[in-house]
Request: fold
Amino acid sequence: MNRVSLTLSRGIARVTGSALGPYQSAVIRIGFAGTWLLFLLREFPHRQELYGPAGPWAWDLAKRLTDDNHAFTALLWSRGQLWFECCYALAVLASALLLLGWRTRTASVLFMLGVLSLQNRSVFMGDGGDNVLHLMALYLVFTRCAQVWSLDALRTSRAEESRARGVRVPGDRVGPVLWTVLGLALGTATLTGRFDNGWLVPALLWTVWTVLGLWWAVGRWAKSPEPRILLDVVANVVHNTALVVIMAEACLIYATAGWYKIQGSRWQDGTAVYYPLHLDYFSPWPGLADLMSASGTIMMLVAYGTVMVQVAFPFTLFNRRVKNVLLVLMMTEHAVIAVVLGLPFFSLAMITADAVFLPTSFLRRLGALAARARGRLLRRGDGTVPPPRSPEQSTPGRVGFTA
Reply:
C-alpha cells in the first residue's frame, strides 16, 4: 500500500511540477505553424478563389452554413475586400510568430483564429490534413509549447543569466501592450455581436486574456512565491492534459482509419492503393505512379502494410522499439504520399502529429545538429559569431503565460 501511495504521489508531483514533453510540444508547434504558413504562402495567388468574399463558395452560402452549425469565422464579419486581406495577412503573421516562438501564448491564439476563420469560411477547400490542423490549432492554445526552440525561451534564458550576474532586467513592456490592444479588440467584437453564432470561441478568448493579465499581475506585484507556484501548477496540468489529448487524437485518427479500411472490399483484396495512383487529380508524376503500380504484389503489400501499421500503432505505444519502428514507417509513408499523390500539406500535418511520439533523446540530437548547422552558417557570414547554444542549455518549464 505504501509503495502504491509513493508511486501515486510521485506521478502527481511530476504532472503538477513540470510541463512534460518540452521538445515534443516544440516540434508540433513548429510543424503545424510551418505547415499552415507554407500553405497560405503557396495559395496566396489563389486566396480569392479559396476564401475571398467573391469566391465560388459565396459569402451568403457560408453565412447560412455558419448560422446553422455555429462555426467561428472572422471572415464573415464583413463582405469588404480590405477586411479579407487583413484577416489573411494576420493569419500569415500569426503562423510565422508561432513558428518562431515569439510571444507564443498570444501567437497560438491568433494562429487558432486564423485557422478557424479561413477553414470555416470555405469548408470544401481542404483535405484530411486540414481537419488535423483544425483540431491541433485548438489544442496548441493549452500547451506550453515555447519551453525550447523559441524566441521566448531565448529571452527567458538571457534574463535569468542577467539576474545571475546581478544585472537589472527591465520589465516587460511588449506583453502589457499586446494584452491591452487585444483586450480592446476582443471587447469591441463582443459588444458589437460578432460572436453571436456560438459561445465556445469567445469564452476561450476571454479566459486566455484574463489568465494572461493575472499571470503578469502576479509576477509584477505578488510579495510571496505561492501565487506564482499555484499558476505554474495549473499551467503544467493544463499543458500535460492537452499533450495527452494530442496523442490520443493521433491514435484515434490511425485507429479509425485502419478499422474503416479493413471493412472496405478494395483494401481486403489489396487493390485500394492502385486506384488513386491513376486519378488525374492525384497524379503529379504519372510516370512514377505507373512504375509503382506495375506490380500487383507491391500494391497488395502496400495496402496490407498500411492497414496493419495503422491498426497496430495505438497498441505499440508501451513498447518503445516497436513504436519507433512504426513511426519511421508511417512518416515514410506520408512522405511518399506527399510526392506520389501530390498532397504535401496533408503529409506534413500527419508527420507533425506523428512527431509527438518521437523520443526526447532523438529530438535533442536533432536540435543539436540544427544548432551546429546554424552556427556554421553564421560564422561563414562574419567569422565572429560565438558557438551556438545547445538545446540542453535552455530552461524547459520556465516559460510562463507570456503575452
In short: The radius of gyration is 23 Å. The first helix runs from residue 2 to 17.
